[in-house]
Amino acid sequence: MSDQNNGDGKKTLSIKGGAGTVKQSFSHGRTKSVVVETKRRKVAIPKPGSTAAKVANAQGAVAQNLSDAEFDRRKKALEAALANEADRAAKEQEEAQARERERERLRAEKDAEARAAEEAEAERLEAERKAEAEAAKAAKIAKTKKVAAEPDPVADAPLGDKPVRSRDKAPTDSAPAAKRTDRDEDKRNTRAKTEDNRRRSGKLTITQALGDQGNRQRSMAAMKRRQERDKRKMTGSGEREKVSRDVQVPDAITVQELANRMAERAAAVVKALMTNGIMATQNQSIDHETATLIVEEFGHRVVRVSDSQVEDIIVATPDDDEAAQVPRPPVVTIMGHVDHGKTSLLDAIRKTTVATGEAGGITQHIGAYQVETESGAVLTFLDTPGHAAFTSMRSRGAQVTDIVVLVVAADDSVMPQTIEAIQHAKAAKVPLIVAINKCDKPDADPNRVRTALLQHEIVVEKMSGDVQDVELSAKTGKGIDNLLEAIALQSELLELTANPARPAAGAVIEAKLDVGRGPVATVLVQYGTLRKGDIFVVGEQWGRVRALIDDQGDRVDEAGPSVPVEVLGLNGTPEAGDTLNVVPDEARAREIAEYRAGVSKDKRAAAGAATTLDQLLAQAKANENVIELPVLVKADVQGSAEAITQALEKIGNEEVRVRVLLSGVGAVTESDVTLASASNAPIIGFNVRANSQARESANQKGVEIRYYSIIYDLVDDIKLAASGMLTPEIKETFVGNAEIKEVFKITGAGKIAGCIVTDGYARRHAGVRLLRDNVVIHEGKLKTLKRFKDEVKEVPSGQECGMAFENYEDIRVGDVIEIFTTQEIERSLA
Ligand code: GDP
Are residues 358 and 452 in the same domain? Predict the structure, then answer.
């Protein structure tokens, strides 16, 4: 069916003047010129004689060799063919070329029906042609034998004429067929692309040439359907099956995770990113904006998740379900002055109870342990005595202690760390029980202890107060039972409860990297129940509980509220005070851990970790829950301290309220700093100063100490800070001046100013300004400071030196270089 007709000049078969010919190409390179002037001949056909004569003439000698019957048959066939195509032929000639081009374009779209029709027609014609061709062949052979030397185009004519004409019908018929096909195809698939058509047309031509259209037909259609399906999948434009999802997009998300959340293929997301000009692999993170773009491109809806919302899943209100609450053991911390017997007491308590259990049982130190009193109450002791653990936990937001046991040696009475412990307990609003230790000692004087405590607003029961006090000896074990019962009683008063049925949350008491077991953390479960297999996030780490080990060293499957357990299965070592939270899945755990790691990185990056009023305010703003601005006040006299406290407590607005954690008389001490650090509070010194240890400690811990001598200034500053208007003061200190006497140009080094220091010093690591006629024309740093050939740190007044600026060259003789230093300073007395 690959025949082509080309309108041509009149050449062949021009027996009758003005006959048009068509050049016809066959599949194997054969071409034939065909008379297209058929209509005219057809017009003559009704006159048998004329046609007969023409045919006879045209065929010449061939005719002579044909039998009459054969001749008649052929003539009839010819006439019939001519009659059939009479009308179309005229039109065809006019449109031949245009249609042919069109047909070529559209041929691909022939559907099975159209091709079947065409095929049937072609077969019919083929049969006809064959019959005629056979006859013609016979005639030609005969003719060739007779008139071999005659190079007459006419001689070939009959051969080409009839077959061609009969084949001519094929295109004649196939043209409308192609049109039909086109329409059908248009109806069926309006979105089909020209490109596709061409591709298909090529295939179909081959198919047709191979002659097995029937079978190929179906598979082509199937293939096309499959291709379209694939295409839809790839581009995600298949609207029929599209489910529009709400996709949570945090500030940063990996491509894979985004794909998961959209329930799309990661490859499709990568491709979509690529089309947007972003090259990202599946494991790379993209920002919120980009992710939003992609989500929308896939037809989903973006649900904004801000940074902190990542944590929302675990920032649930602790134990909100009243009905699910069950009593839990109290968590006890032992505090007191050094050598007053904290460790001894912890050991004694443990031994007492262990002895009642399996004798000689090897106990394991995991940072906390549980004991049972004779009355059956279970108590949890934090096995890490000292204030550091308590305060560091508190400063990290993990307040695990329910009751503080304040150990005071009966032979030593109240000491500085005893007071510190009282302050810590008060700041944390944790009830105290006083354990008067070393009562076995001859010089023990428990009443001295009680009286001394009065000064610190601790009124024990013996003094008609409400703070329980127990006389005991850690050494002999006497009175320890009483202490345990006192704790149990206090615990009852506190009505400590927790819901064991919710996802577990707890605090890390200790954490270490164990050689054999990997990262290990002792976690005190606070709410819920921690189970083997739970997925959790703890600080910046996450993991899946591989094993739980209790304080006896036994493996357990779960741990409920107030139970300390060692947790194995972390991906890294958390810090004491970190909170552990069980989360629904690993992706969430990882996300939160990554978010926290990012936040702490940012925090570290932010210069220093100073607890300034401004930072507290920023925190207050960021976190609406923070409405208190804690401060410590130290003053020279009691009256000032009280006045300041009253004035400060009156300050308040919607954002912040001042809470005086401690108001005392005397110098700012190290213990004040410790308390301030634990509570993230600044210290206000009124007409007092910090001692050297306190200053050092404040520097280390980043605690801000402010000094005042006028209450109004103090109050105004705190007010300013509370309103977020206090900015750190930058103080500039003049170091020296130098005048440029000469300017050298040194290849490679640029311009160097030869100067004489006129005032103070020239200093290498200081800020510099270039003054020209007292106008600052540049401010920056020095690239070099030289004395003769040597790089020096400082050049004193009166000496010459060479100076060059960093990234600045416009220096002239006569310019003045001003050297200065800057420092951020705390606001001082007015
Ligand atoms: P910590 O620094 O508070 O932990 O105190 P320790 O528990 O280390 O005790 C300090 C010293 O006091 C040790 O030598 C103990 O033996 C001793 N000690 C502790 N408790 C008692 C007690 O009840 N009676 C007597 N006589 N000595 C005690």
Answer: yes
